[in-house]
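Homework help board

Subject: predicted structure for assignment chain

Our instructor gave us this sequence and asked us to write out the predicted structure in token form, then describe one feature. I got the tokens but I'm not sure how to describe them. Can anyone check?
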Amino acid sequence: MEYVLNLHNAPLSAASEKTIRRKLDSATGRLRARIRRIHICLADDNGPKGGLDKKCRIVADVAGVGFVVVEERQDSFVGAATHALHRLGRAIHARLGRRIENMRRASRIGHYVEVVH
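My token output:
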């Protein structure tokens, strides 16, 4: 799994980056073999003004599913990344579950038609 982290107006400490990487490993877990690439972009929309302006956008290229995109805003980069990574894991599981269910349904009918959303 290739992992890319981009920062836009986002000063990030080494400890915060390590925390995000640990959360990424935890969120992807068993799915890691299916994920080709994850691109995480952290941005501070309002600069030093504060508020819920820390944005984390994650794009994952998942084999058999395609691209899964999640976005989260919080008051800290680690918080935004944590919530976005949690949502990413759930979204990938949901898409894979739908794909497997579609394959089972098609096999009962006697043919296979893959439906990708």
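Reply (TA_rk): Your tokens look well-formed. For the description, you could write something like this. Residues 42 and 56 are 5 Å apart (CA to CA). That's the kind of observation they're looking for.
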